[in-house]
Structure formats: structure tokens, C-alpha cells
Here is the input.
Amino acid sequence: MTREAGTRTGVRGDLLSCYTAAVAVLMETRGLSHRAVLGGQLFLAVRREGTRCEAVHQHTPLTGDGDAFTLPLVRRGAADPEEAGRAIAAAARRDGAVIVTGSTDRLPWLAGATPAPHWFAVTCRAERLEIDDVFTWSDDQGDLGPYLAPADARDLGPLAACPAPPDPVHRARERLALGTCDPGPAGRVDLPYQWLEFDPAAGRRVESRADVTLSRMLHRTAAAPGLTQPGWLTGGAATAALADLLEEAGRSPEVLAVQNDLWVAARGRALFREVLGDEATAVLGPAAAGLGDWLEEQVLPRWTGVVRAARYNTLRVRRGHPPQRGMARELRALGDLEDELLDRLRGCLASAALDGGDSTSGR
Here is the structure.
């Protein structure tokens, strides 16, 4: 029953992380274009802590800012699976979708996966509850996802078990999953079964048209925003920090854990390219296609190469061999290209404004 996962919401799990894939399903249920919100954001911020790097992949938190869009989420918990299942089912029936914050080793469709947090959506259409996990992944252990299956409250409770992951890399990725240094609703509650649902206290507003939201996201991307918290680097400084980290792989192989954020960044650029070839035409005019072609030719292959090299070197280290060099050099080159990408985006936005094709500010 896996072929249909994501087709009704238009969410491509091969262009997202498991966190953003689940959030994207909720966005679409809410009438909010995930391609405008996620596909309009081109961003990477990193903060190094010893042999680890933490990363944020959105300049505007996925819970919204009250201006461009809003997605009020709250994390809930239960003491036992029966209570969790009933509450998850009730939230899905009330709101159309809910995110279960599970763990890979507790989910039957991810059998054999290394224990790590895994978010997936539970949707309700015509009173029918379904697990709709649109995320897809392939590695040396095989192909995972997507997964679509009917469910009831009794099934859902055990899937919401979320033991604290032992790996600090996994803990950091979940804490930062919603695009903010303050974990907010991504932060765990002190109960063994957990999920994310719409906050009923926040009410519901009518969201802007998708092209308006996308315009705001593109303007913010072009403005190259930073993070106010100390220690975070963005733009070329972020890729340089990652390159410095990977140069230490020979003597500190644990730095290769950053590959998780490398492939998330690569998927974000691939989604950006998809949006440039479609929805962004309404904002940028014909210049969108040219920018997308340049991105596909110059930037995406380098990101793909860096991700492959990091994955390959991780396997080499696991088998007792030293990592091969070259990853850091490619990342430094990527930093220059990403800066050029923003310059080109600014030029497209300026041309669209002169032509009268984009009347939406990037406030």
C-alpha cells in the first residue's frame, strides 16, 4: 500500500527530511502550500560544538511568524499507548492531520533501521484514519518509504513511543527540526508517547495565496538573514565551517555524522530548483527558469557529490579504512556558488519588480 503515499497532498518525500515531510503534509491539510514555505527557503546555518555541527535549514520557522504564514503546533504526550492512540486519533479527526514523533526502531515499515527520531503524519479523510509517511530514503541498507496504510487508535498508540535517542546528533536534529534555535514544540515533553498537533488555542486564520507566500519567502532568502543567537554562521561562513569540520575526518571520524545535514541541505536545493521551474514563474517571471537551469547545472551536482563522498567515507571508516580527501574542497567551492545563487536571485527579484511582475514585499 505504499505507492499512493503523498500523492493526495502533492508532497515529495525524496526532496525533504522526515521532519519536513511530516510538516509538509500538515501544511497542505491546513491549506498552506508547503512548496511556497519550504521550497522558497534557501538557507543553512551551522554552529560547531567540538567534533559536531548543529544545523538549521530554515530562515523562517516552520511554525510561522504570523506574517508570511502561521502553523501553530503544540507537542502533546501520554503515559500509555492506549491514551496516546485515542488522543492522536481525536486530533487527526478534528484537524485532518497530526504528526506522530516516533522512533525508527518502533515502526514496522522501517524495520532494521538504526534507532533515531522519525516523524510521520496521520491523516483523516472521510472519517478514515491513515498513516501517511511520505519520506523516502535509499542507502546501502536498502530503500525506505513511502508508506500509506489504514490505522485505528489502537494501532497508533504504540507507534508514538519516542525514547530519547542515545546519539546527540539525532537529539540535536530533532530539537532544531522546526527551523528555530529555540526548540519550541519540537522540544520533548516528559512522557513516553508523543505527537504534534495544531494548537486549538491559536485559532485559525485564512492564509495568503501560495504565490504571495512564496514571494515573501524568496525575498527573505535573498536578504540572506542570519540567526541572532551567538555562534551561528550562515552563507559562505557556514559552508566553510562544514569544510573545516570534514578536514578533520581522518583523525576524528565522528565528524562524518554531519552527512545527515549535508543531504538535508542538498534536498532543500533540489526542492528550490523544482519551485523555480514551476510556481516561481508567477513571482520572478521568465527569469525563474534561467535561474533554475543554472542551479541544476552548477550547484546541485556539487551538493550531490559532497553527499555521496560523505556517505562513502562513512562506510570506509566503518570498515576500518581512512576517509578519502576532497569533501572539504568541494564544500568550499559550494560556498562561493551559494553566494552567487543569492546574488542571482536578488537580480531576478529586482528585474521582476521593475517589470511589475511581483508586487509583494518581502516583509
